[in-house]
């Protein structure tokens, strides 16, 4: 029975590098939408912060950082900055409202923080410009 468990684990593990790329791409796509909404009003929103405000700078980081993560270019340093940005966003804007992330609206910020931190450690995966450049 041990051999079957090991075989299943090895089979699933074979997909780990590609799924890392899928995690990076999916997270980056959704993250980029937050920036495009703040800076470009797409998807449509009533909230467009001034560029030289905390939310405007956050939107710029989300848009540019999200696009870099999406294509997997400079992945580790960009993911490090984005992880830190999400930690700051959580503690500065969400945590003061309530102790519980589900009540303060900060659950996405926490999740992004740790997904990006994981990408710092794990790298971009094989489907990235960094891998194509041999810099993964």
Automatic annotation (TrEMBL):
Q: Which InterPro entries does the record match to this protein?
A: DoxX, DoxX-like_oxidoreductase
Q: Where in the cell is it found?
A: Cell membrane
Q: What's in the keyword line of the UniProt record? A: Cell membrane, Membrane, Transmembrane, Transmembrane helix
Q: TM segments?
A: 12-31, 51-71, 78-97, 109-129
Coiled coil among keywords: no
Its primary localisation, in coarse terms, equals membrane
Instruction: Tell me a GO cellular component.
Output: plasma membrane
Q: How does the protein associate with the membrane?
A: Multi-pass membrane protein
**UniProt record similarity statement:** Belongs to the DoxX family.
Report what the protein is called: Putative oxidoreductase
Q: Where does this protein come from, organism-wise?
A: Limimaricola pyoseonensis
Q: What is the lineage of its organism?
A: Bacteria, Pseudomonadati, Pseudomonadota, Alphaproteobacteria, Rhodobacterales
């Amino acid at each position: 029975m041990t051999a079957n468990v090991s075989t299943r684990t090895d089979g699933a593990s074979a997909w780990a590098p590609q799924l890392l790329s899928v995690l990076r791409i999916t997270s980056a796509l959704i993250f980029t939408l937050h920036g495009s909404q703040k800076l470009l009003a797409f998807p449509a929103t009533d909230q467009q912060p001034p560029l030289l405000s905390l939310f405007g700078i956050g939107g710029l980081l989300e848009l540019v950082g999200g696009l870099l993560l999406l294509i997997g270019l400079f992945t580790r340093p960009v993911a490090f900055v984005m992880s830190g940005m999400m930690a700051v966003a959580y503690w500065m804007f969400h945590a003061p409202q309530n102790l519980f992330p589900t009540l303060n609206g900060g659950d996405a910020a926490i999740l992004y923080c740790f997904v990006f931190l994981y990408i710092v450690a794990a790298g971009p995966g094989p489907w990235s410009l960094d891998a194509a450049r041999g810099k993964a």
